[in-house]
């Protein structure tokens, strides 16, 4: 029996149900809508598991589920060496969110990542410590900034209300997921246009071993995905 | 697999050689305060260091490197000249990005190191020759670089002091360095920044921003850099070859980049001193850009010894001069310092699988 992991809450779950429904697999919750149980109809040998979206990458990598729906950002952030463990089968066209770098809107001298790098250097010289970027996406942000050779910064961990850290003086800039940019604007921050760290969307992901053994080939065919995806 | 005991035995042998060269053995803590290391090395080290929290000491880190604690110890109590040696584990996370390699690097390994605090002009040669002698049986390739040359070349550019400082700061980041060089080589249009009504937020002050804007809007940093300078810098960066040949090339370059003349003569004196110690300078490869690919704290000679037949290995030994680091750690008080480390684990592997 193959296990498919879906986010247990909200719009992501609903949209995942719709995505599978248009491809001939009906998924539905069983019991009350507070019970984390669900079933699949229209295909043999597939069982459904509802999980927190953030746990799906780890469960996929461990092979406890063979298929899962999660954000492409979470796959990259949570799994070091993710390509060795999982394969992205298909982008699903919803759950779009960008991981962006946000700086105070009042920094009118900060229009590009080069400006940001130069401000970081000045800031470190003036304040005696590295410019702080609040984020929960440590690996993605670090890889992006290292790739673009930005120095003189440090990451500070922020697991929520990240946009508030600048006003609270616990960070000078933030890196967070946004779809409309509204929370950033409300907190007097602006997005650096040339610092899109990752454009994320809901993605159907498979465990690499399950692909190599051919275990999920029937489902890939049923979903009408190109066989090379598997 | 080489047993840990065999690696430790090689480490002790190297330590004996360091002691015979006059070094006092020291044993820095394994658990170090994180703040100094993080501020010094930034996110590069945070990504690779094992951090943990102590309820009383705050953030601590499993020793990722010996140099900082040895320098701190020396600056607190040492008198010059001083020679120290050490042997112990360092710990590094190995995050390889998207795909894991078949043979991941080790997360903990031994380092045997030697650090020399001295104003003797032959200190560089002493350290290089010591490492060369210990590693001779391994038949490694020796590469030498010199950050002095590059930093002096940048310091001598006909640019404003702030632009020279910016280039020197980013010398270890080739893409950013090139972009800055592009910018400074072109006729720059003054930038204009639109005023907006956003309320002030965050720790960076309005004065800091206005100072930067004044600098950029004025574009008063002098005329663009002549294209010849970029060509000269690139020629300097690409000097690589047997040390005597490279030295000849550098001497010719010094006619066009007078600022490097002194550093070239220091390199020449260093190679002479190394020759006097019985090493053929023709066997050393000099690569002017070598130091740009190392840790940022080296600001003079850099060196590494690599195993030719093992392209997937890190260098078996690395080292160099790090006067600037002692200045940062000594709050302004600097001590000339040069040193390096050998990885006994790699030496042990070479000895067990003779090439």
Automatic annotation (TrEMBL), chain A:
An example Gene Ontology biological process: L-histidine biosynthetic process
- Location of the ATP phosphoribosyltransferase catalytic domain: 53-221
Q: What is its EC number?
A: 2.4.2.17
InterPro entries in the cross-refs: ATP_PRibTrfase_cat (IPR013820), ATP_PRibTrfase_HisG (IPR001348)
Keywords in alphabetical order: Amino-acid biosynthesis, Glycosyltransferase, Histidine biosynthesis, Transferase
For the keyword Ribosomal protein, the answer is no
Tell me one GO molecular function of this protein.
ATP phosphoribosyltransferase activity
One GO cellular component assignment for this chain's record is:
cytoplasm
Reactions catalysed, semicolon-separated, are: 1-(5-phospho-beta-D-ribosyl)-ATP + diphosphate = 5-phospho-alpha-D-ribose 1-diphosphate + ATP
- Which superkingdom is the protein from? Bacteria
The record ties this protein, via CDD domains, to: PBP2_HisGL3
- Recorded metabolic or biological pathway in which this protein acts: Amino-acid biosynthesis; L-histidine biosynthesis; L-histidine from 5-phospho-alpha-D-ribose 1-diphosphate: step 1/9
Biological role: Catalyzes the condensation of ATP and 5-phosphoribose 1-diphosphate to form N'-(5'-phosphoribosyl)-ATP (PR-ATP). Has a crucial role in the pathway because the rate of histidine biosynthesis seems to be controlled primarily by regulation of HisG enzymatic activity.
Q: Which NCBIfam families has this protein been placed in?
A: hisG
**Know the name of this protein?**
ATP phosphoribosyltransferase
Automatic annotation (TrEMBL), chain B:
User: Which biological processes are named by the entry's GO terms?
Assistant: histidyl-tRNA aminoacylation
Q: Where is the Class II Histidinyl-tRNA synthetase (HisRS)-like catalytic core domain?
A: 8-172, 214-339
| Residues that coordinate or bind L-histidine | 65-67, 92, 111, 115, 293, 297-298
Keyword Iron present in the record's keywords: the answer is no
Q: Which GO terms describe its cellular component?
A: cytoplasm
Give a yes or no for keyword Glycosyltransferase in this entry: yes
Gene3D superfamilies found in the cross-reference section: Bira Bifunctional Protein, Domain 2 (3.30.930.10)
Keywords from UniProt, A to Z, are: Glycosyltransferase, Transferase
What InterPro entries does its record include? Answer: aa-tRNA-synth_II/BPL/LPL, HisRS-like_core, HisRS/HisZ
What's an example of a GO molecular-function annotation for this chain? histidine-tRNA ligase activity
Note the Pfam families from the entry. Answer: tRNA-synt_His
Alphabetized PANTHER family for the sequence:
HISTIDINE--TRNA LIGASE, MITOCHONDRIAL-RELATED, HISTIDYL-TRNA SYNTHETASE
**Name this polypeptide is given:** ATP phosphoribosyltransferase regulatory subunit
Q: Which organism is it from?
A: Paracoccus chinensis
